[in-house]
């Protein structure tokens, strides 16, 4: 079938809205008509990160839509179901069977390599392959091929334009707090970089009743939004060092910190801002290496780690967050700004400029 996609034709190129051919679903696949797709920094980063030979490529991994066709071997999903798309996992390896689906042994192959396991691509253009299958969906597209393991069926009455970011950004931020850190009212949390992931983390932390919340971001608009979740905003460009202000607000150091910036100097600062035995979770994508203050680490028993998708299983986490949102416990709807799909490059410019938090492209 013919469909419209936002394709990146060369490494570092802009998104180009074009028509391509999409192969119909095989026995283990699901065809989804995309209604909305969240634009994530990973989509923007990967188009400049992947090698030139992996282009043209269709990205997108926060899709939400309506199932139009189901492969013969797929169970639990029916035509007409509304679904939120997330990352893929095999569900059979040792990590998956232990419940750690974000660390699936096949994750690299089924989420990032741009093709099916047999080497075929779901998209072609003039008979030539177009890389896709990004996170098992490539949902910067009018139609996408997905799988039972990354399709989360949701109530048909819910607004898919608000749900699309739950498949990655909101899940990652909230999951890092609720699944990884599990802070209490006696703890403090500092979030460095309060875009969609960081603000979702603060929303979850507010629900968890964390005692002290701090948001570090140079954009006043982002700090203002963080304040709605009970966080004290810090401007890192001010004269007083962030480290001093964090220690003052947290009584000597934070119990926990989350970095979404992927800026090496900020990651080091986040480590140093921790109290003894504190934990930093680095979530940002982009830097190849992070510096560590070894003396601070060794003398204070600190932990520096990361998390894939907030250690979440989307089949459990997405419904959980949707239920929290319905109960007024995860208020993230206002973070979304919608754009017509054809305005994807405008959405990229505005999120990079900090004008919006979470762009969602709609058809």
TrEMBL record:
Q: Does the keyword Heme apply?
A: no
Entry-linked Pfam families: ADH_N (PF08240), ADH_zinc_N (PF00107)
What keywords tag this UniProt record?
Answer: Metal-binding, Oxidoreductase, Zinc
Q: Which molecular function term from Gene Ontology is one that the record holds?
A: zinc ion binding
Q: Which residues form the signal peptide?
A: none
InterPro entries in UniProt: ADH-like_C, ADH-like_N, ADH_Zn_CS, ER, GroES-like_sf, NAD(P)-bd_dom_sf
Q: Which domain of life is it from?
A: Bacteria
Using the record's annotation, list all stretches that form the Enoyl reductase (ER) domain: 12-361
Which cofactors is this protein said to need?
Answer: Zn(2+)
Its family? Belongs to the zinc-containing alcohol dehydrogenase family.
The protein's name in its UniProt record:
NAD(P)-dependent alcohol dehydrogenase
* Species annotation: Nocardioides pocheonensis
Its lineage opens with:
Bacteria, Bacillati, Actinomycetota, Actinomycetes, Propionibacteriales
